[in-house]
Amino acid sequence: xxxxxxxxxxxxxxxxxxxxxxxxxxxxxxxxLGFQVADIQSGxxxxxxxxxxxxxxxxxxxxxxELAAAMPRSGGEYHYLxxxxxxxxxxxxxxVSSTVGFAAPTALAAMALGRYAQSVWxxxxxxxxxxxxxxxxxxxxxxxxxxxxRLQVLITALKVLxxxxxxxxxxxxxxxxxxxxxxxxxxxxxxxxxxxxAVSLIYVSYAYSGWNAAVYLTGEVQQPQxxxxxxxxxxxxxxxxLYVGLNFIFLYSTPIxxxxxxxxxxxxxxxxxxxxxxxxxxxxxxxxxLVSTVSSMIFAGPRIVQVMGEDLPALRxxxxxxxxxxxxxxxxxxxxxxxLFILTATFEQVLLYAGFVLSLFTFLTVLGLFVLRFRQPNLxxxxxxxxxxxxxxxxxxxxxWTLWFxxxxxxxETLYGLGTLALGLLVYFAGQxxxxxxxxxxxx
Length: 444
Hints:
One of its GO terms (molecular function) is L-amino acid transmembrane transporter activity. The protein is mainly alpha-helical.
């Protein structure tokens, strides 16, 4: 009997690119510039900051593309690290991603959406709006893959069009500021090696996080060995261009003194460009754009929990899917965590301490590219990372520098992150121990 259309539906290249773009273009690009300009005044260094962050993401996407083509299964780092190193390492990656890596950023994007919506409609409750959006999108993604995919493509296309339109109109009407975007003195280059640049790069890296989103859906992508590398590369390049262009417009059109210390950068710039009324409209537009970010994370995150449940008996209930192949229980699990972060309002602290371990696992994954080539040189690789070994080495160098700086400048957050890993190890070995025990009443 032929399978139904819904059960055989596969994610297209277009939907995959939409998921990557939507995951990446979230709160970071609309909030972090105000803090960067507090310590960095050079326009060249500020744009290089976003360029370097994009290079890190692009080198990571090239490396992940080879791993995804060689090991085409959903689950992302959980699947790769389990095969390359040890199942315990893979479990820790999935533990961090499923409990913090997706749920907390989803909550962050939803709460930012609520705050931007309130700037347009003051009577709106930010928390109520955040919860309503999360629940509505979770319901859509649990209903069918086709509905979730079409929604994702539609709202991501809207996001890109709004941002490109904002850059075009902003460039046309802006009053140019006295800021240089080409290196003018040696100090412009020296700022690239300064502690302030390193601090800002941590937040830029967060803004670029999500470039690997499609690897969590590998098993649901059409011809993943062929299409997944394309999805990762095209999605990352689109975001790199958007980020550099957006920050150019922010700096070109608005005095640094006005941007300094501001959280809602998009609202501030739109107000400076078009006036208070247009600033409120832009606040509403950004709220709509953040719907795409929340949607993509609700789409991708549960696939990690699903794959972990397939491998670990203790989590087996979360691996169950409905007749359409959608991991409903895993989606409900992530949605519950997201709502918990929204209601307790402590997720931003969680993100700070989780930043170290999340970067650690992307570092280990790209390092695994070298390990896998050494251990399994004859493994079929339909796609090989462009620029190997330079591109993965560049990712490891830049990402390793960021990890070292986080560990040195934020020791408590690093220790909390390592504590999360220790708790994950306890859960893993407890689950293994339970799985090894014979059922009650059985005889040896």
